[in-house]
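User: Continuing from earlier, I have the next pair ready.

Assistant: Great, send them over.

User: Here they are, in order.

Assistant: Folding the first of the pair now:
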Amino acid sequence: MPDVITLGEVVVDIFASPISAPLKEANDFTIALGGSQANVAVTLTRLGATAGFIGKAGADPFGDRFMELLRAEGVDTSHFTQVRGSPTPVAWVDASNPKNVDFIFYRGADAKLAPDDIDPAYIASARLFLFNSVTLTGGGKAAVQRAVDLARQNGVLVSYDVNYRVPLWRDRAEARAGILEGMQGVDILKANEADIELLAGTSDLPAATRWSLEQGVKLCLVTLGPDGTYFNNGLAEGHVPAFKVDAVDTTGCGDAFVGGLMYGLLETSLEIAALDEACLRRLVRFANAVGALTATGMGAMAPLPTRDMVEAFLSGQQAG
């Protein structure tokens, strides 16, 4: 059984070619395979951990490609299924502004994920369970709730990645309410600046992260793109700078960060509320490096680094 189980979507990302072109001006396109929690699972296996993915794809050529890719990457696909009658999800990605990547989503098989798809023994066997807020909007909310409940009952740490995608919600009020509901029972919260401001009502990172801890979260991480990451577990808080790289595409960097962080946590006691500042800085620095390396290629999965690549990269950097 894998140490880490992720639940979410696989998504065919369609980019303008060249990637710097806005979608409305593009005539040529290229595709890349992605999907937040699938990206995290592949990140973990490339780093050397064991990971499984729970989700659904269509019984179509893209679903076949995802199944083949995840298996080739060593991800456990025993709970990843293909369904007839619903296509593999697609997202048109406008990455012409790397600081504000826009998505147009076409949902499909992901909406078929149901509570009956969650195997209690599978969840109970893991050390970490991961999900993201996108799944709460696509028909998978009940499945997520069941998986989180099972994880909590069995002492499995729960990590929640806030991915506030404007097109998936009616308005900000609905998004905030829905994402907040997903925070129930969560140990680790990862968000970006816009996400945490939506939830906490403030852009002040110390205040926003303290707010998250008051909601029951044990470790909050706010990714700041080229400005690094802010962390707070109640015992220690601070900022870890980002690494400067020649960025090609930032799609999936947050997922890579999460995978890198979870890999680091697996090597600790996992008593996250007791992790001191030095340990948290080391974990976040490693995760920042995984995210930075992912930005040097196009797409979310293809550029994900191996452990050797991350170590080589870090050895050439000054300690941060």
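And the other member of the pair:
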Amino acid sequence: MYQFFEVRNFRCFRELTLPQLERVNLIAGMNNVGKTALLEALFLHCGAYNPELTLRLYAFRGIEQAKLEFGRWVETPWDSLFSQFDTSKTVELAGEDERTGHRILRLRVIRQPEELAKVRQYIQPSSGKPKDIPSFSSEKDIPSFSSEIAQVLEFECTEGEQHRKYYMILDPNGVRVEPIPPPPPFPAFFLAARVRIPLTYEAELFGKLEIRGKQDALLKALQVIEPRLQRLSVVVAGGSPMIHGDIGLGRLIPLPLMGDGMARLASLVLTICNAPDGVVLVDEIENGLHYSILPKVWRAIGEVARQFNTQVFATTHSLECIVAAHRAFSESERYDFCLYRLERVYETIRAVTYDQETLAAAIKTGLEVR
């Protein structure tokens, strides 16, 4: 699990630190203060080596397609990742993780001809193996190829004494990453507020649980909302697999027909169970859940997160959601939960940390923690 996480020059953050991270971490704050951006920073850091992940952030925001343009000084899809759109800066994401140790990820836009030439010499298309970066004694030694490589984003990942560099390249042929990055160090899921997981993908996630004999984890969690639920099964209807449940009606019912709360909790639990020793990021976690069942939902989330050793980061606008989480974890064997409230002070965004004692006092006295 992450022990702490630091962000510099990413989106709206000049500098932000999250200390004392727990198994379940809830992020609150006013609109446009950076809650979703913080999840995006964590998502990139979890991926570690793959620059292509920056393009996926558009889908999380509900933007179906990023416009790609070419030319040395044209704005790129990743310009918005940099604080105040200043691509002369370097984005730095750092975290201490018990699985991989201290890891720093740096994002940098390469535009100068000499640096572009070095990148061209460094990469070896399709081989997956980088070459040594060359040096040039004068401008006349620099190859002319600006028409071949229009824009380059460099990912530099530092783990201990090991340094790796990967490049996302935009050119007239499209988008490519060189060299081919390795798999991420651990599984990570991002549940966006505006994008629902396809039902067929949920059925696939449930199938993976069945293979490992862990399908009862989902059943037990859903029984929090629907006590009549006896079993779950994947049924192929109309050529598409979908999770169905037995609630004693003499036939199986598609899970979405049992209500938004059941569908939402199923998505949350399925992703947590399928990210063992990994991370799940959830934007606006209270969506689709009635406030009255939130304590039970948080109890279920805490139980599956511990069972699968998964760390959860979620955002919320809801005071009921915060109070419910505090209540659920206070009643559990371990209070492995922490609230962070992002607030803007002049041009800087900072995180206020609420542990169990501090949050209990704030709720009791009616202090604003959203």
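Worth noting for the second one:
The chain has two domains: 49-178, 188-365. The longest strand covers residues 101-110.
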